[in-house]
Amino acid sequence: MKSLFALIVLAALLGAVSSAQAAGPSVPLDSVAIDVNNEASLQRGAHLFVNYCMGCHSAQFMRYNRVGRDLGLTENQVIRNMVFTTDEDGELVSSGSLMTNAMTRAYGNEAFGKAPPDLTLVARVRGTDWLYTFLRSFYRDESRPLGVNNVVFENVGMPHPLWELQGWQEKRKDADGTVHLDLLRAGTMSAPEYDRAIRDLVTFLSYLAEPIQADRQRIGIIVMLFLLVFLVLAYLLKKEYWKDVH
Ligand code: HEC
């Protein structure tokens, strides 16, 4: 009975492992070191996000002024640089609004085959390495409706939003099946500049998915220091209490 149970658990575990692998991308992911304490990087990322992504994607669980506060921007800077959405009367929405946009699901489904998902939590769902590799892996593919494909997300419905910056890439396969992306036409940024821009964008997406993470890390360090000091005090107290007991 016991061994049967063990067998079932083992089979379930193996199943979980193999399905996790099956869902993974077909190319190795590039890893990215992000720093959510880097305010300048977060600001650059936010700038890219509102200018290049929010036409299609929302971040509907976040408010503009919360981003402004966390990223060290004044109310005016937030209104001027981040808020482009208007309400029914054509007025800019207030800085306290949620970061939504005007694209309906029905329109998104019709235009792209799949409505652009909300991106507030995408960094937690996909991970930062996945996002970093995905946003650098678009390539020309005439067989796709929009003429563009992605090696990390095969047959993605999203056009390359940053083609002006990155330029266009072409996919090449080695004899051993390794996938390479060669630059076909240069964009306004060099490859290292584009990588840096995407790192900023991914840093912002990571912040968006967990705005409290910088505070959490800081508080964690303070708590560890407190416990260390407390350990010393507790040890001295213990020595004091036990000094006459043999
Ligand atoms: C022209 C519209 C459009 C723009 C602009 C756009 N996207 Fe998308 N995006 C889409 C669509 C449509 C999908 C859904 C694709 C699918 O599932 O096939 C998508 C999917 C994604 C996904 C995958 C989500 C998931 O987990 O499945 C990510 C990540 C993403 N977009 C990030 C971005 C970022 C970052 C930007 C800005 C640099 C951006 N997008 C700009 C249309 C757009």
Molecular structure report:
The chain is mainly alpha-helical and 246 residues long. The protein has a single domain (30-238), classed as Orthogonal Bundle (Cytochrome Bc1 Complex, Chain D, domain 2). Helices cover 50% and strands 11% of the residues. It has ten helices and six strands; from the N terminus they run ααβααβαααββαββαα. It has a two-stranded antiparallel sheet. A two-stranded antiparallel sheet has the order 3-4. The protein has a two-stranded antiparallel sheet with strand order 5-6. A hairpin with a 5-residue loop joins β5 and β6. α2 crosses α9 (191-209) and α3 (64-70) crosses α4. The model is unreliable at 18-23 (pLDDT under 50). The protein binds heme C (HEC).
Class derived from helix and strand content: mainly alpha
| Low-confidence runs | 18-23
Gyration radius, rounded: 24 Å
What is the CATH topology assignment? Answer: Cytochrome Bc1 Complex, Chain D, domain 2
What's the helix-strand series? HHEHHEHHHEEHEEHH
Tell me which CATH architecture applies here.
Orthogonal Bundle
Tally of separate domains: 1
CATH class: Mainly Alpha
Total helix count?
10
Strands of the widest sheet, in order across it, are 1-2
Largest sheet: 2 strands, antiparallel
- Give the overall shape: extended
How much helical structure, as a percent, in the residues? 40-55%
| Distinct ligands | heme C
Q: Averaging pLDDT over every residue, what do you get?
A: 91
Distance between the termini: 53 Å
The portion of residues forming beta strands comes to: 5-15%
Number of strands: 6
Name the CATH superfamily assignment.
Cytochrome c-like domain
